[in-house]
Amino acid sequence: MVALRWDDIDFEDQLVTVRQGKGGKERIAAIADMTDYTIQSLYALWEAQAGEYDHVFPTMTAGYNPGFYVDEAMNAETIVRVVGGSGKRIGIERLSAHDLRRTHITLALNNGARLHDMQAQAGHANAAATLLYARPADAKPRRLQIAF
Questions:
Q1: Residue 17 above 80 pLDDT?
Q2: Could you tell me if residue 123 is left (phi over 0), alpha (psi between -120 and 50 degrees) or otherwise beta?
Q3: How distant, in Å, are the alpha carbons of 79, 96, 105 from that of 119?
Q4: Checking phi first, is residue 26 left (phi over 0); if not, alpha (psi -120 to 50) or beta?
């Protein structure tokens, strides 16, 4: 996501081209449901950039009134601070981008996504790696589902 460019987002087909994914792999990732809110948020970000930036998340200035600085991808350290700070603001003490990736995979699998599809989405070479990300669903609802 750090290197995501506006040209990488296909709003019509709800696809994102990941050009510099894990292991340097390129892949196309599907967005399960790009809601109107998501689209509006992305357009608001694009408008705030006044069409001057190719990167969706360009380098920004820090401080009380942050702003866009230069059309270069944010570095990983900045992403750690942004995601971690966002987590704290909503009451999650420790949140990382990797937590979001793991949550996405877990929720998708728990809601019926095929393992093969999630493997491709995550860019994993084998399904075993994808399963390492998945966290088990809450036991109580699972118990009710399998009760007979």
A1: yes
A2: left
A3: 24, 20, 9
A4: beta
Give the bridge partners for 72, in sequence order.
none
pLDDT of residue 143: 57
More confident residue, 60 or 118: 118
Q: Which two tokens stand for residue 107?
A: 């929720």
pTM over the 0.70 mark: no
- Residue 100 and residue 46: Cα distance in Å, rounded? 23
Tokens of 18: 């990941």
Extract the tokens encoding 109: 């699998």
User: What integer pLDDT is reported at residue 71 of this predicted model?
Assistant: 86
The number of helix segments (H) and strand segments (E) in the chain equals 6, 5
Centroid of chain to Cα 14: 14
